[in-house]
């Protein structure tokens, strides 16, 4: 197998192990919108408030596969930041505090989902949710937006070749009508640049483990923090309202990670007649990631359709690290050292770097810094929370 892929004229054939993208919007004319319709749509977007509105039905033609999650807690400041960015027309990348950027299970998709159900009502042109996890599937994801149940662009839409379906949707997206596009799990800068509309009224919201984007892309990064302790306790109690002092201890043991808290709460609810909170806490302290609850036992539903397994969620990032790669090799060494420290305790950035054997010349220093970025900040994040302001690294879980 190679890394190359192709889809009509959208993605050009490349050398083995590489990809070459083309301008998918080339020769695609923006769809026309009459002045009255546009004026009403812009007035509707201007009414987007400076507070978080209640969830409401989405405009006709929207494509949103995820329902509002009644268990959603907290995140008000993050929701407000996204709302204001979208109102101004800026692209927003959510889910990355440098320390949290690589941390699966932080709730990036869930936050975007909440944004859609709260703010989507103000986008007259509709909301369109697309998974970017598989680059090969993006054209099909886009094409679905134009058919029945979506924009319904033309009566014979479903009979058109895929390439013509995509071109029709891209034409609509380049119109001045305000729309909200969500690119979920978009990790590749080239993929974002390829598919976001170069003009028109669309606002683009992405979720990503990547914290840093090329400045030329104009991405406004909106870091997503771990849940506060009060929010974590609230989430646990939405599953088990009778939790008392154990809720605080369970949240602490799980590092306030939303995915872990959801799994723990679901487990406690499912087996509420079998296991008491105090007993569960004792088991967590003994096993942590090996506990059945964090592997999805007792949980049958994922609000975001993502993996219900904390270890596998982390592994998505860890498996990207190549022990034979010049940068990834010291990154793995850094991760191994970090995992030995107590979870939730910050490790000074400079102290951690001193533990890695590397040439003392300028190139060696850059290599180690690249390793830290590979570990925490960009495409290969893992178990650590990086605090830019304090310049410290924090393990969320530790090796026992």
Describe this structure in words.
It is a single chain. With 400 residues, this protein is an alpha/beta fold. The N terminus and C terminus are likely disordered. The protein starts with 10 loop residues before the first strand and ends in a 5-residue tail after the last strand. The chain is built from 14 helices and 10 strands. Helix 4 crosses helix 5, helix 7 packs across helix 8 and helix 7 runs parallel beside helix 9. The longest helix is centred in the last third of the chain and has 15 residues. It folds into 3 domains: 212 residues, 3-Layer(aba) Sandwich (Rossmann fold), CATH 3.40.50; 82 residues, Helicase, Ruva Protein, domain 3, CATH 1.10.8; 76 residues.
Q: CATH-wise, what's the superfamily of the largest domain? A: P-loop containing nucleotide triphosphate hydrolases
The CATH class of the largest domain turns out to be Alpha Beta
Please tally the helical runs, counting DSSP H or I stretches of 4 or more residues: 14
The count of domains is 3
Please give a quick description of this structure:
By secondary structure, the protein is α/β, with parallel strands linked by helices.
Q: What keywords describe this structure?
A:
disordered C terminus; three-stranded antiparallel β-sheet; 400 residues; disordered N terminus; five-stranded parallel β-sheet; 10 strands; Helicase, Ruva Protein, domain 3; Rossmann fold; alpha/beta; globular; 3 domains
């Amino acid at each position: 197998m190679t890394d190359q892929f192709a889809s009509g004229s959208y993605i050009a054939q490349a050398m083995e192990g590489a990809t070459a993208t083309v301008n998918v919007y080339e020769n695609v004319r923006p769809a026309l919108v009459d002045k009255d319709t546009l004026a009403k749509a812009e007035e509707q977007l201007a009414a987007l408030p400076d507070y978080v509105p209640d969830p409401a039905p989405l405009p006709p033609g929207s494509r949103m596969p995820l329902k509002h999650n009644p268990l959603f807690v907290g995140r008000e400041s993050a929701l407000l930041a996204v709302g204001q960015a979208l109102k101004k027309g800026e692209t927003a990348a959510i889910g990355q505090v440098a320390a949290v950027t690589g941390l699966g299970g932080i709730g990036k998709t869930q936050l975007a989902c909440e944004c859609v159900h709260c703010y989507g009502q103000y986008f007259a042109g509709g909301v369109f949710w697309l998974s970017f996890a598989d680059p090969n599937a993006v054209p099909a994801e886009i094409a679905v937006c134009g058919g029945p149940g979506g924009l319904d662009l033309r009566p014979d839409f479903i009979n058109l070749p895929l390439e013509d379906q995509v071109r029709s949707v891209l034409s609509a997206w380049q119109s001045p009508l305000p729309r909200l596009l969500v690119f979920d799990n978009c990790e590749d800068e080239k993929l974002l640049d390829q598919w976001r509309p170069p003009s028109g009224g669309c606002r683009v919201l992405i979720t990503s483990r990547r914290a840093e984007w090329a400045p030329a892309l104009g991405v406004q990064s909106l870091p997503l923090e771990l849940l506060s302790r009060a929010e974590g306790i609230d989430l646990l109690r939405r599953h088990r309202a009778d939790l008392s002092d154990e809720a605080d201890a369970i949240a602490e043991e799980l590092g306030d990670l939303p995915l872990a808290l959801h799994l723990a709460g679901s487990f406690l609810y499912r087996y509420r007649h079998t296991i008491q909170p105090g007993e569960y806490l004792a088991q967590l302290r003994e096993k942590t990631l090996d506990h059945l609850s964090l592997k999805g036992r007792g949980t049958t539903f994922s609000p975001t359709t993502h993996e219900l397994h904390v270890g596998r969620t982390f592994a998505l990032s860890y498996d990207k690290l190549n022990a034979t790669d010049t940068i990834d090799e010291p990154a793995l060494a850094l991760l191994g050292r970090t995992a030995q420290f107590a979870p939730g305790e910050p490790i000074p950035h400079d102290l951690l770097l001193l533990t890695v054997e590397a040439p003392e010349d300028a190139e060696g220093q850059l290599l180690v810094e690249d390793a830290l970025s590979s570990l925490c900040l960009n495409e290969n994040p893992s178990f650590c929370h990086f605090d830019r302001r304090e310049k410290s690294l924090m393990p969320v879980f530790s090796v026992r």
